[in-house]
């Protein structure tokens, strides 16, 4: 008995467990207006190169020249009229394209018949460049405003279809089984399972769509347009006015950036329940 007690007394206490140091793998806190840092850097390099004479002003005007040209065009009303015409085409094509693309994605993603009838033709169309459709669209619709809006809508519909369809078809089957076990109705299943699962893909498609509307706009305004930023730029090309061309490009970039930022803001509000690296 004495031997057992003495052995128990001489046993060393267990060493305390030391937790391994936690590695921080997150990218860090978001930088306020961080996305503008890169833009400001590019503009700064452009201004510096223009100031020291590295850039030929006949081919690439200086930033201050572009700014003054934009002010002059705004004063005589040219910029306002062309911007209004471009915005009308882009917004109308965007609204129609988003509605059509989302509807096709839902029908194709949630029904086998819809997938069989819709997804194949959509994938074939994705392989056909939008520019390749211009001769056929002109033959069908003429060279007026209808042709321009329809072509923008087609580009937008394809941009939003693919991410939305992928999000719908990638919903975890365990959630579907759980919905069946708890007896959710069809509407409840769509509202509580399908919609939350598909919204991230939809917003990604929406971001691609707003950018696609501007990319398609500059193409369609080359064809028999009487107004618009694209028409203004192509007319300036004939006279070698690089400053006017850059004014149009700056506005395209500004509208694209603002529309993308608006979609991102709405996405953060709607999907506030998600925790991501961007938060």
From TrEMBL:
Domain ABC transmembrane type-1 as annotated: residue spans: 83-263
TM spans (from-to): 33-55, 90-114, 126-143, 149-168, 193-219, 239-259
Keyword Protein biosynthesis assigned: no
Leader sequence residues: none
GO CC field: plasma membrane
InterPro entries: MetI-like, MetI-like_sf
Keywords in alphabetical order: Cell membrane, Membrane, Transmembrane, Transmembrane helix, Transport
Membrane topology: Multi-pass membrane protein
This protein's record includes keyword Amino-acid biosynthesis: no
The protein's name: Sulfonate transport system permease protein
């Amino acid at each position: 008995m004495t031997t057992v007690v003495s052995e128990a007394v001489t046993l060393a206490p267990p060493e305390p467990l030391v937790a391994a140091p936690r590695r921080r793998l997150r990218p860090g806190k978001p930088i306020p207006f961080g996305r503008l840092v890169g833009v400001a850097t590019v503009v700064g390099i452009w201004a510096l190169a223009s100031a020291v004479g590295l850039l030929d002003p006949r081919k690439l005007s200086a930033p201050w020249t572009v700014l003054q040209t934009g002010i002059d065009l705004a004063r005589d009303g040219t910029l306002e009229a062309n911007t209004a015409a471009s915005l009308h085409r882009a917004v109308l094509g965007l609204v129609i394209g988003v509605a059509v693309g989302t509807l096709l994605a839902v029908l194709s993603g949630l029904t086998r018949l819809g997938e069989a009838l819709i997804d194949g033709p959509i994938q074939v169309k994705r392989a056909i460049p939008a520019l390749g459709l211009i001769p056929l669209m002109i033959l069908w619709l003429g060279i007026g405003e209808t042709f321009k809006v329809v072509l923008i809508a087609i580009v937008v519909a394809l941009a939003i279809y693919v991410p939305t369809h992928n999000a719908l078809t990638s919903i975890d089957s365990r959630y579907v089984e759980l919905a069946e076990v708890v007896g959710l109705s069809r509407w409840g299943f769509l509202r509580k399972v399908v919609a939350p699962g598909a919204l991230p893909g939809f917003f990604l498609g929406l971001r691609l769509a707003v950018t696609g509307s501007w990319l398609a706009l500059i193409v369609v305004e080359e064809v028999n347009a009487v107004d618009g930023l694209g028409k203004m730029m192509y007319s300036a090309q004939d006279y070698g006015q690089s400053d006017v061309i850059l004014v149009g490009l700056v506005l395209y970039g500004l509208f694209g950036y603002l529309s993308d930022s608006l979609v991102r803001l709405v996405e953060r509000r709607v999907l506030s329940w998600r925790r991501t690296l961007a938060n």
